[in-house]
Amino acid sequence: LKHGDCGGIYQRWKAGKGFEGHAPRKNASRPPGEWQTFDIIFHPPVFDAEGNKTSNGTVTVLQNGVLIQDHVELLGSTTASMLEEGPGAGPLYLQDHGSPVRYRNIWLRPL
Question: Using CA atoms, how far apart are residues 100 and 111, in angstroms rounded to an integer?
C-alpha cells in the first residue's frame, strides 16, 4: 500500500528526507458503489502565545471499523491542503479526485 491509496496521508516535505507520507496499515475499503465509513481522531498541533509550534498534530483513522492510521504525527498541512497550518481552527476539506463521490452524515465533534 502507498500513501496515495484510500486512507493514506499525502506526502509532506521532511527536511533531510524528501517527500514522505503514511500508507494505510491495510486496505479496508468496501467494493465500489458501497458506502465507506471513516472515524477520524485529530489532535491539532500546539502553538505557544507567540504563534510558534511546540508540538505536531496527530491523526488516528478507522475505515469501516478497521484501524488504518494509528496516532500518525503530522509534520504540517498535507500537500492537498490549500492553507498552511496555524494556531487557529481551519476548514474541513473533502476530496473526490473527480470521481462520482457522495458524502452523507458528516459529524464534527470537538473532543
Answer: 32
- What nine digits make up the cell of 54? 511546540
In this prediction the pTM is: 0.86
Q: Are 77 and 84 within 8 A, CB to CB? A: yes
Could you tell me if 12 and 78 are in contact, meaning their C-beta atoms sit under 8 angstroms apart? yes
Answer yes or no: is pLDDT of 13 > 70: no
Exposure string (b/e) for 48-58, b if CB count within 10 Å is 16 or more? eeeeeeeeebb
DSSP 29: P
Question: What are the cell numbers at 63?
Answer: 475505515
Q: Which residues contact 85 (CB under 8 A, 6 or more apart)?
A: 45, 53, 57, 76, 77
Cα(93)–Cα(88) distance, integer angstroms: 16
Grid cell, residue 86, equals 496555524
Q: Residue type at 56? A: N
Contact assessment for residue 72 and residue 58, using Cβ atoms and an 8 Å cutoff: yes
Which residues share a beta bridge with 19? 13
